[in-house]
Amino acid sequence: MERSVSNTLHSDALNHLVGGVNSPVRAFKSVHGYPIYFEEAEGAIVTDVDGNKYVDFVQSWGPLIHGHSHPKIIDLVYSKMKKGTSFGAPHIGEIELAKRVKKRFSHMDKVRFVSSGTEAVMSAVRLARGYTGRDFLVKFEGCYHGHVDSLMVKSGSGLVTFGIASSPGIPENTVAMTLLAPLDDEDAAEYLFKEHGKDIAAVVIEPLPANNGILKQRNRFLKRLRELCDENNSLLIFDEVISGFRFKDGSYGDICGVKPDITALGKIIGGGLPVGAYGARTEIMEKLSPLGPVYQAGTLSGNPLAMAAGIMTLDLLDDDAYDYLEELGQILEDNVTPVLEKHGNPVRFVRMGSLFWFSPGSGSPPTRADQIPSDAGKIYAEIHSGLLERGYMLAPSAYEVGFISTSHTIEHLTGMVDALDEVLNMVELG
Ligand SMILES: *Cc1c(COP(=O)(O)O)cnc(C)c1O
Q1: At which of 274, 294, 316 does a domain end?
Q2: Alpha carbon distance 363, 396 (integer Å)
Q3: What are phi and psi of 212, to 5 degrees?
Q4: β pairing state of 178-182 and 136-141
Q5: Whole-angstrom distance between the N-terminal and C-terminal Cα of the chain?
Q6: Final residue before a domain boundary, out of 316, 338, 353
Q7: What is the span of the domain harbouring residue 99?
Q8: For the residues 87-91, what does the mean pLDDT come to?
Q9: Probe ligand 1: pick from 208, 242, 357, max atoms within 8 Å of CB?
Q10: Would you name the residues annotated as active-site residues?
């Protein structure tokens, strides 16, 4: 595929933007390519500046569950936009979106809107610390919570429970208050609580970890975290930025049968505009300013355009929409499984509803970050570039999941599987 306009823009961007991008994974570094500049996008299809079209399985990394530029979302945002882009004052859209969020997240009495998933988690952590009067957090290896200082922690050599910062610029003191545990391991969590229980403000987890591939957890493990939090008066924070509103049966908390204290949201609830949110029962939320002492604010929080996009996105997510997403997911699974088998299973196909992942490695799906082979990127880079040349766009990283939207069709999925078959034939030929 010819991408000369994209490549020229990228060269220019390198002079002005760091690495030419505003978010690192967009740089295509881990798949050894160059970023593709988009011109427009409609439904499942994106068109680049060279006029190439691709079936998009990235969907802006999750928010676009109805595909790009859904006419009803665009219409509502446009009609609101004509009345003002930001008020810095209350408006009805905030109430309307909060009602919709509360309907699905039954543990929330009150909601606070912010402008990104990162901000939602960061603020939820501050609220938990303010509410409990404690400083320590527990986080899990393989979960991503945005670029929050206290949660950008990875395991270091020799340290069993304390992690090290996963980026320069994060003070040691900040990271020293974050305890790191492996996923899918009750014993490790129990040990942390035995040692530090009375200092732990909150356990922070993606109940469906989906930022390091899909690392589905046993319900029993999530329930044990709930028990440990209860026994130690710590709060349980579910980061549902990626899983929230993705499943017909409710929040992921409902699905796993565990009620968190605070839930952080983002992505789908903003319908493609910048939104995050967090919510909890009244007693916790009333610690927040202006009612309580825990400060958190935002110039563009509750932005009317973002609220409108969120409202229409959630209204379009009726039972039929969820059923269609599941049907598409099942069709993809049914089609892709024999193709992978035919090629000796070079990757595993893992799916949770409309989320899917070509997981490097073999055997049953991984439940912990350390079960993903360290050379995961190699085979994935070949699959990614091969599919891209055939008009199918997956995320440019082996650790990112794919997204099916209600704008995808069966043909988009079977087309991708046929293309994958071809790509794997080429890979085998070397
Ligand atoms: C995307 C994501 C975030 C960060 O959200 P941003 O809007 O990118 O800041 C946090 N947590 C989870 C689980 C996510 O998937």
Answers
A1: 316
A2: 24
A3: -140, 55
A4: parallel
A5: 21
A6: 316
A7: 71-316
A8: 97
A9: 242
A10: 144, 239, 267
CATH code of the domain in which 198 resides? 3.40.640.10
Between helix 186-196 and helix 219-232 the angle, nearest 10°, is: 10
Residues with Cβ within 8 Å of 29's Cβ and at least 6 positions away in sequence, in order, are 19
- Ligand 1: distance of its center to the CA of 50 in Å? 30
Query: If DSSP codes are grouped into helix, strand and coil, which group holds residue 72?
Result: helix
Could you identify the atom of ligand 1 that is nearest to the CA of residue 61? 1
Asked if 315 and 104 touch (Cβ cutoff 8 Å), the reply is no
Rounded-to-integer distance, Cα 274 and Cα 255, Å: 26
**C-alpha of residue 143 to centroid of ligand 1, in Å:** 10
pLDDT category at 360 given cuts 50, 70, 90 is confident
Question: Which pLDDT tens digit goes with each residue over 402-415?
Answer: 999 999 999 999 99
Q: In the chain, how many domains are there?
A: 2
- CA-closest residue to ligand 1 atom 5: 117
> Which stretches of 166-292 are assigned E, i.e. beta strand?
178-182, 200-205, 235-239, 262-265, 276-280
User: At residue 11, does pLDDT exceed 70?
Assistant: yes
Nearest atom within ligand 1 for CA of residue 274: 7
Mark whether 392 and 251 lie in a shared domain. Answer: no
How would residue 33 be classed by pLDDT, with cut points 50, 70 and 90?
A: confident
Q: Residues 83, 204: one domain?
A: yes
What is the number of H-type helices and E-type strands within the chain? Answer: 13, 16
Ligand 1, from 25, 122, 145: best to mutate by most atoms within 8 Å of Cβ?
Answer: 145
* CA atoms of 115 and 306, how far apart (whole Å): 9
Six token digits for residue 30? 């881990």
Residue type, 223: K
Same domain, 249 and 331: no
Tell me which of 115, 183, 241 to substitute to probe ligand 1's pocket, judged by most ligand atoms within 8 Å of the beta carbon.
241
The pocket around ligand 1, CB under 6 angstroms, is made up of 116-118, 121, 144-146, 206, 211, 239, 241-242, 266-267, 276
**3-state SS assignment for residue 138:** strand
Cα separation, 54 vs 58, in Å, equals 11
- Protein residue with its CA nearest to atom 6 in ligand 1: 117
The pLDDT value recorded for residue 362 is: 82
Q: How confident is the model over 121-161, as pLDDT tens digits?
A: 999 999 999 999 999 999 999 999 999 999 999 876 544 56
The rounded mean pLDDT for the chain is: 95
How many CA within 13 A on the CB side of residue 379? 20
Cα of 211 from ligand 1 centre, angstroms: 9
Q: Which atom of ligand 1 is nearest to the CA of 23?
A: 8
